[in-house]
Amino acid sequence: MAAPRQGARLSVNVDHVATLRQARKSRYPDPVEAARIAEEAGATGITVHLRVDRRHIQDSDVERLRAAVRGKLNLEMSSAEDMVRIALQIKPDQVTLVPERPEEVTTEGGLNLLFYGRRIADVAERLAADGIAVSLFIDPDPSQLEAIARLAGRGVTGFEINTDAYSRAEEPAATESELRQVAQAVEQGRTAGFHAYAGHGLRTDNVGAIAALSGMEELNIGHFIVGRAVIVGMEEAVREMLAAMAK
């Protein structure tokens, strides 16, 4: 099943395939094999987060993915110097800079460009000089979009809107409010000349509205797909997500 020709593309995050593997420090399941199946099922890209603590994805995984992924390889990472060196060595198609704290279960919130804009700009310029596209993971906050606009020409080419608040909303009014914030952020960022992506907490029952937003180019989805794959297999999980995105 091919990805929809129009609308948002799907990049599958295979971090939690590695989480399952690392639970027993075994050789399986293999995130590279999962990536291959996801692409065959219609995903146009693969995303992995190489954390400083290496709790799931390992350096060798990224190296093997670089050799195996046929579509876009998106490497999520912090702006720590050792991460920058790894990215410059492996050369993924895109780096998405994200905040990272050792005690967090998963990424909590977007980058604070108001405080760390100078460091982010420095890292982005170094990555871009080596031919790597750079995206920033940010909350749908107008002040953060204003800050990213000031990074035009500094190596940043795109932004990924954090959809956590949207995904957590339970009441219809709250969901609509969060969706409007995401839509406004996408419009604000695209007006400034950046590519628009989104991700965090998206599921088959809530992804459609995000995928349908004007200007939305790509969704990065991992936890739900991997969780579903435990039940129905990676191929079917990806196909289900693509169908939900296309509705």
Task: Describe the structure concisely for a colleague.
The protein is α/β, with parallel strands linked by helices and 247 residues long. 47% of the residues lie in helices and 18% in strands.
Estimate the helix proportion, in percent: 40-55%
**Structural class label:** alpha/beta
What's the total count of β strands?
Answer: 8
What is the name of the CATH topology?
Answer: TIM Barrel
Helix and strand element order: EHHEHEHEHEHEHHEHEHH
Strand content: 15-25%
User: Oligomer, anyone?
Assistant: single chain
Q: CATH homologous superfamily?
A: Aldolase class I
CATH C-level label: Alpha Beta
Major sheet characteristics: 8 strands, parallel, barrel
Describe the secondary-structure layout:
Layout: E1 9-13, H1 15-22, H2 31-40, E2 45-49, H3 59-68, E3 72-77, H4 81-90, E4 94-97, H5 113-129, E5 133-138, H6 142-149, E6 156-162, H7 164-168, H8 172-191, E7 195-199, H9 207-211, E8 216-221, H10 223-232, H11 234-246
Parallel strand pairs: 1-2, 1-8, 2-3, 3-4, 4-5, 5-6, 6-7, 7-8
Helix pairs in contact: 2-3, 6-8, 10-11
Explain the overall architecture.
- The chain has helices spanning 15-22, 31-40, 59-68, 81-90, 113-129, 142-149, 164-168, 172-191, 207-211, 223-232, 234-246; strands spanning 9-13, 45-49, 72-77, 94-97, 133-138, 156-162, 195-199, 216-221.
- Helix 2 packs parallel to helix 3 and helix 6 packs parallel to helix 8 (172-191).
- The longest helix is centred in the C-terminal third of the chain and has 20 residues, at 172-191.
- The protein is built from 11 helices and 8 strands.
- It is globular.
- The model is unreliable at 1-5 (pLDDT under 50).
- Helix 4 (81-90) links the parallel strand 3 (72-77) and strand 4 (94-97).
- The chain has one domain (9-246): Alpha-Beta Barrel (TIM Barrel), CATH 3.20.20.70.
- The chain has an 8-stranded parallel beta barrel, surrounded by 8 helices.
- It is an alpha/beta fold.
